[in-house]
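To the team - adenosine-5'-monophosphate-propyl ester complex, inputs and output below.
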Amino acid sequence: MSNYHIKHLEEYYKVYRKSVREPENFWEEIAEEHFVWRKRWNKVLSWDFKTPEVKWYEGAQLNITENCIDRHLFTKGNKTAILFEPNDPSEEAEHISYRQLYERVNQFANVLKAKGIGKGDRVCIYLPMIPELAISVLACARIGAIHSVVFAGFSATALSTRINDSDCKMVITSDGSFRGAKTIDLKGIVDEALEDCASVESVLVAKRIQSDVSMKEGRDQWLQPLLDDASKECAPEIMDSEDPLFILYTSGSTGMPKGMVHTTGGYMVYTAYTFKNVFNYKQDDIYWCTADIGWITGHSYIVYGPLANGATTVMFEGVPSHPDYGRFWEVVEKHKVTQFYTAPTAIRALAKEKLEYVDRYDLSSLKVLGSVGEPINEEAWHWYNDNVGKKQSPIVDTWWQTETGGIMLSPIPYVTPTIPTYATLPLPGIQPALMDENGNEIDGKQVDGRLCIKFPWPSMARTIWGNHQRYKETYFSAFEDMYFTGDGALRDTVGYYRITGRVDDVIIVSGHNLGTAPIEDVINEHPAVAESAIVGFPHDVKGNALYGYVTLKETGEGRMHDNLRKEINQIITEHIGPIAKLDKIQFTSGLPKTRSGKIMRRILRKIASNDTSNLGDTSTLLNPEVVQEIMENVK
Ligand code: PRX
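Output:
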């Protein structure tokens, strides 16, 4: 039986049951039939969630770029692999065929090698959404170097923290980037970051905005001349299935960002398999995911998943609002996009604008619409369904995480009946469980609890770079023998899942994960600040926005507060990035605390959300007068 492409609901249930009953056979058949391996595995799976240790396809050897590029050359050499749509609509789109991709990745790989990069070395990629980003990712994979892509909206401090955490030997960047009407000086940010990064030996710089940048002698080099001189052939490094493929940082609820480590074989199999099914991918489709490759969505569903299927994947450099709010739909029409995958925050922002921006374009090529990154509210779902999909294209609400590597819960289009706000059913191989606060699994239907996964899947992160203990504590300690997602969910009467949101101190703003503690740490560095607490509150475009309660060392009035608000957002921008800026800042004389000194965030959340009719149990509250004061002075 071919399990690979599920076509109707009965088949889904059959395949799903098999994936639970015989997981090893299930994943073995898929790996065998659909990929190129240099050496077969000795064992499909070994695992222990206590240690925790998970290995897929142990003993197997492969190179993921052979699967994403080389094997398509015979049949699809001239097919477009990457379709680059620039920020400026008047600049021509670039069609990079599989043959050209092969040559450009090899040239890049040879440049990396000539610069002394080899298997296992970490390379930080800090690039905008230009072809060099995907090509450099694949070039690293070609030679077995571990890429660590940092989203090019992060600040110099955030960049240097990530470079240092994994001792990157090289940084790949560009002179700058275009974002709508703005340009950003990326090289300047890299220079600032590298003042504190001893491990970096070289910097390769792509030209994008043709700006004047300073090049440090002996460290920095322009990329293009090196590529021009490099050979178009580079033998792939043969990797073990469990060799690391990449590190990708995600915010935690405390301290340092977590460098999630993904390995090679299982990640390839799972991203390819889910891409095929979740997007109902067929040859000749033009697939577009609007995410940035700086996030996991871009890694798995712009680069690896689509290319492993020989698909055409669109890379978009721009933003949805430039030159106007019709930009997405213009691109859909222009390239006859068949699958369109975006985030609820983008949908909400576009839904606020005139419908004319959508109606102006022919969207009849669309077959599947996707949503990712945060819960999609009912209103946004209907707007997407009615105006973009014209009620003809199923919406796949895909739930997953940086840590899961691939989509976990999602409808299969034209197979699973959808309901707004429900991520619906687990994909084959995924065994979700809802847990209560006492650590018991909640059986049955129409229940809610903490979402866990009780069996390994091939693309799960294997560790946190340099900190296996943190990996264990964060994901495998809350519930015994379970991977804990940090999300709450409910399961309805037909077994569909609906994600209700984070149950930890992570807040999702415009689809980006932000830990509260790292932001508070930054604010507390301001000389005037004694203490702070950040909570989320509902926002009609961003999903959640940040509300900061800040206690000053000495209280001042009026204008000084306005200046301080600006300064606080300024240091957040410098240390983390503009995405972590606070929408509201309230100065308070203290923060509500329990007798043991813990901040009662639950109360602060309620106040920020304007939901103060019932503050819940306040029996452990040490300072009720502070709560009163905060409520009276709400921003
Ligand atoms: O809370 C869930 C939310 O995003 C978190 C993962 O964020 P990140 O690692 O940045 O990965 C985002 C892209 C995969 C989850 O723990 N989330 C993601 N997708 C959904 C979602 N919440 C509700 N519905 C979704 N479809």
